[in-house]
Amino acid sequence: MGILEVQPGGWVWVKRDFALPANVISSANGILTLKIDGDEEVKVNSNDLTTENYSIMHPSCLQGHQDMASLSDLHEGSLLYNLKVRYFANEIYTYIGSILVAVNPYKPISGLYSNENLEKYSKQFIGEDKPHIYAIANEAFRNIWKSGESQCVLISGESGAGKTESTKMILDFLSAMGAKNNNGEKSLVSSRILSSSPILEAFGNAKTVYNHNSSRFGKFIQLFFAEDGNIVGGNISHYLLEKNRTVGQNPSERNYHIFYQLLLGITEPLKSKLCLDDPKHFRYVSAAGAVRDPNCEDDINMPNNDALLWVDDKNDFKEVMTSFEVMGLSNQVVEEILTILAGILHLGNVTFHMDGGAQISDRDAVERAAQFLSVNTEQLIESLTHNKREMRGEVFLSPLNEEQALASRDSITMAVYSHLFDWIIQRINSRIKSPKTPFSSIGVLDIFGFENFAVNRFEQFNINFANEKLQQFFNKHIFSLEQLEYNQEGIPWSDIDWTDNAGCIDLVERKMGVFSVIDEESRFPKGTDKSMLEKLHNANAKNPFYIKPKITGPDFGIRHYAGDVIYNTVGFLEKNRGSFRDDLITLLKDSKSDFMYDLFEGVKLSTERGGRGKPKAATVASSFKESLSSLMTTLSSSNPFFIRCVKPNARKQANDFQNQLMINQLRYSGMMQTVVIRRSGYPVRRLYSDFCSRYQPLLASIYTKNAKDKVSLYLTKNASEKEWQAGKTKVFMKETLENTLEQQRVRILGSAAIMIQKHWRGAIARMRYRKRLQDIIKVQSVVRAHLYRKFYLQTKSAALVVQKYVRGHIARQVVAEMWAEKCARLEAELEAQRQALEERRAEMERLRKEAQEQEAEQLRKELEEEERARKKEEEEKKRIEEERMKEAMKRMEELEKKRREEEAKRQEEERIRLEEERLEREREEKRAEDERAAAILAAEAAEAEQMGLADDEVALDEAEQEMFRHLQDLDSHLGQEDGEHEQEIDEWWDMEPEDEDVYANMTGQEGFDTISEAGDTAEIDVESSLPVHAGYLKVREASMVSRWKQKYCILQGDSMLIFNAKQDYLKSGWLRKKGGGKGTLSRRNWLPRFFILQNTTLSYFEFEGGEVKGQINLRQAIKILENPLDKNKNNYIGLVTPERTYEIIAEDENEHRSWLRILKEVHNTPDELLHTMKEEMNPRNAVASIDLIELESCNRVEDKAENHVFCVITNDRLHYFAAEDSDEMFRWIDLLSPQEINVKQNALHSGYMTLVKSKIVRRKVFVSLTEKGLEMSKRRDGPIEGKISLHSLCVVTNPEEVGGEFCFYIHVRKRSYYFAVKTMAEANQWADDISEVITSKEQFQTRTERLIVELRNLQSDEIDSVYKSNAILRYTKAAIQTPILALPYGPCSAKNPTPLQEQAVSIYKSFLNYEGATSPVEFIETQLGHLFDSPLLIDELYCQLIKQTSWVRDVDNPQNLRYWMFLLCVLITHTPSRKILRYLKFHIQRNTSKYSGTEMYKFAVYAEGLLTSGVKQREYVPSREELKKLLFLKDMPASISCYGGWNCKIAVTPTLTARVAVARLLSGMGLNPRHNKYALFEKLDNTYKVIEDRTLISDVLAKFERKSPGEGWCIFFKLFGIVEFNIAKCDPLELVFLYEFVCDQIRRGLFPDDKVSLTELAGLRCQYLYGDYTPDKNYTVSDIYKVTLPEVKYPVSSRKNTGTLRGLGTLGKGTIRKLKDLYTDTEKEDELLMQEEIEKAKNTINDYWKTKSGLSKGAAQQELLKVTTRWLAFGYGIFDVLIIDNRFVTKIVCHKN
Length: 1793
Prior knowledge:
Elements: E1 11-14, E2 20-28, E3 31-36, E4 40-45, E5 54-56, H1 76-88, E6 93-96, E7 99-103, H2 115-121, H3 133-147, E8 151-157, H4 163-180, H5 188-204, E9 205-206, E10 214-215, E11 218-225, E12 231-239, H6 257-265, H7 268-273, H8 283-286, H9 313-326, H10 331-348, E13 352-354, E14 358-360, H11 363-373, H12 377-385, E15 386-391, E16 394-399, H13 402-432, E17 440-446, H14 458-489, H15 502-509, H16 514-523, H17 529-540, E18 546-547, E19 555-560, E20 563-568, H18 572-577, H19 582-589, H20 594-600, H21 620-636, E21 639-646, H22 659-668, H23 671-680, E22 684-687, H24 688-694, H25 707-718, E23 724-726, E24 730-733, H26 735-895, H27 899-947, H28 950-988, H29 996-1002, E25 1029-1036, E26 1044-1052, E27 1055-1059, E28 1067-1074, H30 1080-1084, E29 1086-1094, E30 1097-1101, E31 1108-1113, E32 1119-1121, E33 1132-1136, E34 1141-1145, H31 1149-1164, E35 1184-1187, E36 1193-1197, E37 1205-1209, E38 1214-1218, H32 1222-1232, E39 1245-1252, E40 1258-1266, E41 1269-1273, E42 1282-1285, E43 1289-1292, E44 1296-1298, E45 1301-1308, E46 1312-1317, H33 1320-1336, H34 1343-1351, ...
Parallel strand pairs: 7-21, 8-17, 8-21, 47-51
Antiparallel strand pairs: 1-2, 1-5, 2-3, 3-4, 6-7, 9-10, 11-12, 11-17, 13-14, 15-16, 18-19, 19-20, 22-24, 23-24, 25-26, 25-38, 26-27, 27-35, 28-29, 28-34, 29-30, 30-31, 32-33, 33-34, 36-37, 37-38, 39-40, 39-46, 40-41, 41-42, 43-45, 44-45, 45-46, 47-48, 49-50, 49-51, 52-53
Helix pairs in contact: 3-4, 4-5, 5-6, 5-9, 5-13, 6-9, 10-11, 10-13, 13-20, 14-15, 14-21, 16-17, 24-25, 26-27, 26-28, 27-28, 38-39, 39-41, 40-41, 46-47, 46-48
């Protein structure tokens, strides 16, 4: 231990907890005066200045070093002092190698982030200039191309250290670098990334005690770069938003900035619209006290605002709005966001009080909250004050206490805000996403800093754990990996001690660690915070990083790397569960706002989450842990840069440096160890090959092949030994050496580039010179050529002139000589020709006469021969006809005996038919020859006429007439033959229709076992309707003589369908046709015929593949009948043609409906649209089918007659098939062979069920329900032989009892399955489990549904292109073949058994009739009523109507307007689903903006108004009057009846409710609704039924139009209940209502008073109605008073089980009269007694009436009301009571209206 020698003015380090700098001020008498750290003076004896407590300071430490790795004195004090010196010099950035330390200055520093600085650092390497955050960003940017891997920047530090600002600076720099590579302009993506910062800060940052702009969530921002350096996209990941801050803050803290910005920066009109006011009026933002904005003078006196000096909420709000605009959010979306925020603020003002449960204290606040959250007010109140639970199909409401109600309110707030925040992040990501795969990326991590408050809760635990993980990542990269690599590469190195936080992370993450225990208790239903804490203490008490408090309480602690933190466990489990009641989710999902629905669309109810066989919902802790793990994986795959942010003081003040706070931050962040390892280590490492590749220009002078030797030689020569070390595979360098090498490389490459540019420019110049020289020479050659050519042409022209004249002279002489010779020769030739012509004429005349004589003779011979042939042919035909008749009769006799002989007769008939066809062809050929002969004769006759041969003309006419007579005889003979043949076949078919064997033979279905019913040929696995395999096979028939016939086979799903041939027609099948022959029996009987509809021709055959028996042209049909002429015939179809009426009967109702639909469509469809109606391979037309679930095996067999034969073995028979070749045979065998797959053991439910196919066909199968669908097998351990895939499952029906079994349907996409079990419990269990699996699957979407979703996010021009390229979205005349939406298979209800798909297609096809209908009202009524029976078709109909009103050329054409009328009618009747509602709004808004001023525009605006006012689901089809008015966009008038025969007219809109109607009536009458309660009633005769407030008036009118047409009903307006009564304050009209209300109560016997008082009141009523009493005034007692039988006559024991409360004593006396039975033993006695009582009552009333003579009408009214109001319970309602036993009723429940 030595003594230091130091002189005055010198500097020493004073060693305390950490070393502090001290200046020696003076020295006297061995006493030194030291000034420590600039403010503390101490005197020290020179002998005490030892090395143990002091050390000499190196002079270089007095100036701040830019890189702390270069400090001469290296200890904690030197690091602290270096940062302090630089801090007060406004140098806030300091390097530790490539690690940047940033000290928060808490003040702006001029020029630090200027554009000049940004430009300067973009051109420099790290270390070339002062430390700056731009240098780190630039190094990360350059490393993208230098290392070829992604980069990341990790910014860490305590809350308030400046992480968020550092993130913004890095983003600014990278954005500027991207703009530099984009011609200096920032891309739209780059601008949006920068604009996201104000939005994220507003919604995710808040003031805390440590930081005025603290990030209350973590974010990882990734920027994606292209190869040219331009930013092409980005992504923002966020972590753990502090949701509970929205509902409460610690003292002196604020809520999220956006709330204050909204309240202080919003425009006045919008502020008034949202009912916003000063912040201090909203509890959510003013409870903690810190709300002040410097521009808001009203709040200047509020406490705890010293940290808000930088907050300018008004300007920040403008910046947020600008950022929204840059982000591409529309004004409507922004307003919806602000509306939700306003709703949250108003919801925070909702308070409660206890009154039998929590009750709302301020209804105005809850109404405003409901208005801005777009939810129903009453539903919101119910959700806030009650807990709704559903158990076994019943709903239970339990009231909440005040604390629970507040928790419900806050739960809604937190859920809405967190989902809004998630939506904003998602929308930002969608705006900045990269359209293509990026080249590389840079990530910037800004995550919440380490926090240690007075009370630390679940949020602080997660935040601090995230910081632990980041610290571990830092330690791993700076210490662990670096030291490990030194040891592996053989670099001399002494290990550095550093603080490892792996033990702390293991405490949290390991099994039975903190996370594990929290999650375990969260999933345990009875888990509490207390039980969780006990488990934590038991499992971790001995862990050195775990702190168990000595005092028992709800706390535990963890020793973090930054210090010990004590956590309060209250609320841990509740926050970790993230529980949100189902009724609250339903409330928010039912919001009328589409935006609000979008926020919660993906949130599932608890009944939809989890379940048997499915994973439980993730907790908050586990989700955060997984996202943090994913973040660590991303960071590990990138090259990291570290920025350590520190704060100089806790007061957030400038120029204040607290040593202790700073040293703590430096210690727990491992700064000292970082400096040591950076100082002595080599942070830059490169493989030798990479070094040679990167720095090849520097190594050009070193000639050696070995990369290591080359690198070592170069560095030995050009660098000091301290700057690098050679490892085994890498070279290790200091960062300064790498920067030097980079600078040298840039310099050499720059010189080389200049040299290349020089030579390139010279070469370009020489090329340009040579090209110009060649161009000049070319121009010269062209000019010279032009001059020479001009001279040549002039010379040539002169020579031609001379030649012309010489040649002309010579030619004229030659021509004169030749002309003379030619004239002589022509004269001689003409003379010779004249002589030859005379000779030829004579010869021709002779030949003509001879030819005519020969032709006439030949014609006579041919006619004689033809006559003989005709007679012979007739004889032959008669012989053939007789033989055929004999064969037909013989065939009929043998048909019932042997099927083999019947087949032989059929072959004989086939041969005869072929022979007839041959004969007919010969006759046609002969006929054609006769026609040709006739043509020849006609031509010769014409020639003979010209030549004057009259006798030949006569012969010709006779021959022609004979020929036509022959043709007519032939035609008549053929027609008679056809008629006889039809009559013969008709009589042959005249047999019993019930003979199924004969019928099977005639249909050609012999030899096949029709295993499945006609409608049961679809597949079990309905994943696709396309056939798996198809082709022609030869099938062996099961007859006496085995024969092979070619059939068309299709393997589709679980069925093999067999057809006679490929179908290429619209429809085919067997029907019964009423005969059409000439015989009586044939015309009377119904004969089976095979019908084929092809194009517009309906042909019918004797059997499939046989001869056409007749054809019907549907185009010529006059009418298609549905009602039979014979009422006993069902499934009738009549085709009326000009010639006759064809009568047809279908097999069943479904077949009848199918044929009737297709026939009508073909009859009405234009020819150009017929091609859209083709029906391929209808399973109903299959002659047979094989159910593969019954298939046992499929094997190859040998057959002598055919090759390539294979056999299919089913439960009860064999099927033989023959393929064309062996490949095809083996293909069929492979597909038909059953797969040996064992039934899965992890089934959710399994057991035996009965698969019912018909009343006869039933099969017991073992069914297993798995997460992938239903699997079927014959036995429990057998192979899977049938499967219904998960995505094919659609709906399972409720079980019902049928014949002692409990059955249910499973509807899949293309068919339905009917299962039966023995007990109802088992059936319910199956139905519930299958429904749960169906609910959990991803919903199937058609292509149209996907297009509907895409349309909302497209621009206008893109939308037009989508409509243009997708016909399914726009108007078309062609019918659709499949529904637009994904509908389940099967009927919707028992009323309509038609499958939904067929119904949907049928609705669309009915539009063709609707377009041309005379009156659309009837059609609309039918369709609207159909939707009540098939509610699953509502969305489908909306989509069809939207399709037919989209992309119409002429929007005002009548057809389009009719579709809009139909759309309005559907809109007021049926409410679509949320998804289709949004599509409808989009469609209407698009049309209103695009076609303004048109007639269609009026309908679209009306529809938009209906949507805005909120249409409701109707209970009845609208009345005809309403529909008629709606078609003209008019309101329906209605009459409301009142007392005294008054009627009030009111306009009924489609959305008018009873509540609004009452308000209108009260307003029109001037009545005050606060005094008494008024309501509308349905009045039918003397019965009144109150109409509920939410009921639509139009629904009431529609109900009575259908249920009570023409009866005496009306809507009546009267008093419903008395709330406040004071005769003096009532106006006359209100008094009338009150008076009539009381009189009505008296008349109905509901006024509680004794009989005497009631008769007196009746007397006053008579005085009011009739004036003074006179004997001639007659009235009915029952109109003013209810007469009852005397009570004393009948004892209580004789009462029946029902009675009426007739009287109630005065409440003040506390007595209640007993209830007496009002019925007598006999009707006669009752009648007599009643008459007696009526007379008594009338006399009593008249006596009292007489005493009121002279009393005016008004006075009588006043007196009656005064009497009634004296009763203490006036205004209470009395109701009939059901007596369930003979005991006296001791309690009466009265209800105040």
